[in-house]
């Protein structure tokens, strides 16, 4: 059902509340339960693991065993890709004739690994080959005529594009006019007209019969290398594939993971082989980069310097540092790192990438803060389902990451545009801004940009991520048209953020044995996600801010045991639970390795107060209203405050105000009092204390929405006799006397 005013109104409220819907897979029943029992029994797996396999489509012991052993995944023949034959013939012709070849790539991880893989292979066969990656800020994405002129002057006779080129129709024509042939290899969505190149190898072209369409750019390069090896090596397909896998699967896996390709079918094999190769890598640049990210803050190598190599490690640790080169400095830094044969040179380059990543993080945080402020002040939530922001001050290399953070926070497609380099004082209509977009399930961003493409200078990308260029004069037209398209195509379900979980677990289920079983599902990624679980009614025992408050560490338990829970990207102020609360957590299970010790931990994706905790709070609110209205109460309810309670509340509030903190919720104030008072002060008792202190003139406060207060205090107020309070005397009179 298309979006309408009411849904968009709800969208506004949902995004502000950041409420996420949890979708938990139902426990199997009937025949499904019998199937899970069979998988568990015959494969010697836990019932939890058997259920995971069943829900991922492996419905028999045979299918489950085949998945775990990767017995059914197959690599298709490379010549099944349309235009692979003419691509191979033209490249072989260039090698034989010693024609200068240029590998033309993109500046992201997929592009960098594509360039390196093809370059290393061609050099190993004696080709005269160099590479060209456009500068993100000066040139932007894709093939450009200015770059082609440079390559013509360098003597290039053949260009092979990798991870780019599928939309370069006019540019390929221009290259031909310069006497340069072009072979396009890409994996992005095609437009109606393909470039008139020697060959266009892209599994997404409509006439390509290749069955697996989800290859990364480096995956297409992998197929090209397999085809070349089959011809150059003179062997059969199997031995040719084996040669390429043994030499380049590390780079191919890094690019595939970083570009968030589905880890299924061919990609699952590629990543499996690649992770194994990375774990034993002798490639100097990769060794140096892993060592660099595994050092302590003081620069010394850790004893466990080689971490466990998983798709998560590649995606969240290795890939951002490669990406940072193209975002902040030059992608050639990353290329030279992987091409390096000298360990000392590689160490210098690896540290430079880590420094570039630190710069990227700082710039990302600055832009994110500005973008969030702009959204709250300017965005029309009731009418515009796509957030489109623009600035002259944003670093173009970082806006894609910020767009991801906006989409994650608001659950909406986001497009950020940077007019960096244009004169901000003049702001001419023909200024060209470069943009990056991220989308949500339900809105294909590539299709949306095609629909409004006549308002853009250039665009290209995938369903969930895309790049574009737009003139300043067309920016408002583009904003209006992309939102009109989204209103027609987004559904109500799409605008509610959903998090999926595979099962509900209890504390006794969380064991190292289960974590070991889950690792057998690796490699993880899109299409084969890290298993997620829900734990209900966990008691929050500790809340600790970490990394300067950017993240939070919880200790949760059930009275018999406890486990550490890490909340990355969640400051403690954003988590609406306090010590003593019961909470529900949606998480994945992880093993922490430090100083030779292994311990279980949760990686939390979302945390909420449990319904029981909410019911208790609501019951306390109702009971307060009754007592405030004159109802009697018993001593067992622990409602009447003591002098110790008054002193603690006054002391905490005075210290907070001196520190500049004048706003806090009722529950956060209770949490601040928790370490001071031997017993919990209690919801009702605290409410009464605040009102009595206000009556006595020791404190004033404004009660805002949702039980949040803004406090003030007269610094010159002196001691006051509590017995002067009429409220306190009234509350005492309502206490039922025990007989």
Walk me through this protein's architecture.
It contains 24 helices and 21 strands. With 739 residues, the chain is an alpha/beta fold. It has five domains: 5-71 and 499-609, OB fold (Dihydrolipoamide Acetyltransferase, E2P), CATH 2.40.50; 83-280, inorganic pyrophosphatase (n-terminal core); 281-361, no CATH class; 379-495, Diaminopimelate Epimerase, Chain A, domain 1, CATH 3.10.310.30; 613-733, Winged helix-like DNA-binding domain superfamily/Winged helix DNA-binding domain (Arc Repressor Mutant, subunit A), CATH 1.10.10.10. It has a five-stranded parallel β-sheet with strand order 3-2-4-5-6, sandwiched between helices. Strands 7-8-9-11-10 form a five-stranded mixed β-sheet, with helices on both faces. β20 and β21 (708-712) form a beta hairpin.
Provide the fold topology.
Elements (H helix, E strand, L loop, with lengths): L4 H13 L3 E4 L5 H14 L3 H9 L5 H9 L14 H13 L4 E4 L4 H16 L4 E4 L12 H10 L3 E5 L6 H9 L3 E5 L13 E3 L15 H16 L4 H22 L6 H15 L4 H10 L17 H18 L3 H8 L3 H36 L8 E5 L7 H12 L3 E5 L13 E7 L6 H7 L6 E4 L3 E7 L3 H15 L8 E4 L1 E3 L6 H7 L14 E14 L4 E7 L4 E6 L14 E13 L2 E13 L1 H18 L14 H16 L4 E3 H8 L9 H13 L4 E4 L4 E5 L13 H8 L6
Helix pairs in contact: 2-3, 2-4, 5-9, 6-9, 6-10, 6-14, 9-10, 10-11, 10-13, 12-15, 13-15, 14-15, 15-16, 21-23
Rg, rounded, reads 30 Å
Number of domains: 5
Q: Find the count of extended strands (DSSP E, 2+ residues).
A: 21
Please state the second-level CATH architecture of the largest domain. Alpha-Beta Complex
Strand content: 15-25%
> Between the first and last Cα atoms, what is the distance in angstroms?
65 Å
**Which consecutive residue ranges, at least 5 long each, have pLDDT under 50?**
1-17, 296-304
Instruction: Look at the structure and give the CATH class of the largest domain.
Output: Alpha Beta
Q: What's the story with the biggest beta sheet?
A: 5 strands, parallel
The strand line-up of the biggest sheet is 3-2-4-5-6
Shape: globular
Class per helix and strand makeup: alpha/beta
């Amino acid at each position: 059902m298309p979006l309408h005013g009411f849904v968009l109104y709800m969208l506004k409220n949902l995004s502000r509340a950041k409420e996420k819907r949890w979708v938990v897979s139902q426990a199997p029943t009937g025949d499904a339960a019998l199937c899970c029992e069979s998988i568990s029994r015959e494969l010697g797996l836990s019932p939890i693991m058997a259920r995971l396999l069943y829900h991922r489509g492996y419905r028999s012991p045979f299918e489950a065993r085949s998945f775990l052993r990767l017995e059914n995944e197959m690599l298709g023949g490379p010549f099944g890709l349309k235009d692979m034959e003419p691509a191979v013939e033209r490249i072989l012709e260039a090698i034989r004739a010693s024609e200068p070849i240029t590998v033309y790539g993109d500046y992201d991880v997929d592009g960098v690994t594509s360039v390196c893989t093809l370059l290393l292979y061609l050099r190993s066969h004696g080709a005269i080959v160099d590479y060209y990656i456009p500068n993100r800020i000066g040139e932007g994405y894709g093939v450009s005529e200015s770059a082609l002129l440079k390559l013509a002057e360098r003597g290039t006779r053949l260009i092979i594009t990798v991870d780019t080129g599928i939309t370069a129709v006019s540019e390929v024509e221009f290259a031909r006019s310069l006497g340069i042939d072009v072979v396009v290899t890409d994996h992005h969505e095609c437009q109606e007209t393909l470039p008139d190149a020697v060959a266009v190898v892209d599994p997404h072209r409509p006439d390509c019969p290749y069955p697996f369409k989800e290859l990364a750019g480096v995956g297409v390069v992998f197929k090209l290398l397999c085809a070349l090896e089959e011809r150059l090596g003179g062997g059969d397909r199997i031995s040719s594939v084996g040669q390429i896998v043994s030499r380049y699967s590390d780079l191919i896996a890094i690019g595939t993971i970083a570009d968030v390709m589905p880890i299924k079918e061919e990609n699952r094999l590629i990543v499996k082989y690649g992770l194994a190769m990375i774990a034993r890598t002798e490639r100097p640049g990769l060794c140096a980069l892993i060592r660099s990210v595994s050092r302590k803050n003081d620069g010394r190598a850790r004893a466990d310097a080689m971490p466990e190599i998983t798709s998560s490690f590649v995606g969240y640790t290795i890939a951002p540092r490669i990406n940072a080169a193209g975002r902040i400095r030059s992608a050639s830094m990353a290329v030279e790192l992987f091409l390096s044969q000298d360990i000392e040179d590689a160490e210098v380059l690896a540290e430079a990438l880590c420094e570039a990543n630190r710069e990227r993080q700082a710039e990302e945080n600055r832009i994110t803060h500005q973008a969030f402020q702009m959204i709250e002040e300017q965005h029309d939530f009731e009418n515009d389902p796509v957030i489109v922001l623009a600035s002259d001050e944003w670093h173009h290399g970082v806006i894609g990451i910020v767009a991801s953070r906006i989409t994650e926070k608001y659950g909406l497609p986001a497009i950020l545009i940077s007019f960096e380099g244009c004169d901000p004082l003049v702001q001419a209509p023909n200024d060209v801004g470069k943009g990056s977009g991220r989308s949500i399930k339900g809105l294909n961003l590539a299709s949306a940009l095609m629909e409004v493409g006549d308002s853009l200078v250039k665009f290209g990308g995938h369903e969930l991520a895309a790049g574009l260029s737009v003139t300043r004069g067309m920016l408002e037209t583009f904003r209006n048209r992309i939102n009109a398209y989204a209103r027609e195509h987004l559904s109500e379900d799409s605008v509610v953020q959903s998090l999926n979980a595979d099962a509900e677990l209890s504390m006794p289920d969380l064991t190292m044995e289960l974590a070991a079983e889950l690792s057998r599902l690796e490699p993880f990624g899109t299409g084969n996600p890290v298993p997620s679980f829900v734990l209900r009614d966990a008691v929050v025992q500790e809340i600790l801010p970490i990394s300067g408050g950017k993240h939070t560490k919880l200790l949760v338990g059930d009275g018999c045991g406890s486990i550490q829970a890490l909340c990355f990207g969640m400051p403690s102020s954003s988590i609406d639970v306090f010590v003593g609360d019961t909470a529900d957590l949606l998480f994945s299970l992880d093993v922490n390795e430090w100083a030779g010790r292994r311990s279980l931990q949760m990686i939390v994706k979302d945390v909420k107060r449990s319904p029981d905790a909410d019911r208790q709070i609501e019951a306390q609110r109702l009971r307060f209203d009754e007592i405030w209205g004159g109802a009697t109460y018993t001593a067992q309810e622990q409602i009447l405050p003591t002098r110790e309670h008054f002193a603690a509340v006054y002391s905490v509030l005075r210290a907070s105000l001196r520190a500049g903190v004048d706003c806090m919720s009722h529950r956060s104030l209770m949490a601040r009092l928790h370490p001071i008072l031997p017993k919990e002060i209690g919801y009702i008792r605290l409410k009464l204390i605040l009102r009595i202190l206000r009556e006595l003139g020791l404190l004033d406060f404004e009660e805002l929405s949702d039980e949040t207060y803004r406090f003030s205090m007269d610094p010159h107020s002196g001691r006051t006799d509590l017995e002067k309070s009429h409220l306190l005397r009234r509350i005492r009179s309502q206490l039922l006397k025990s007989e």
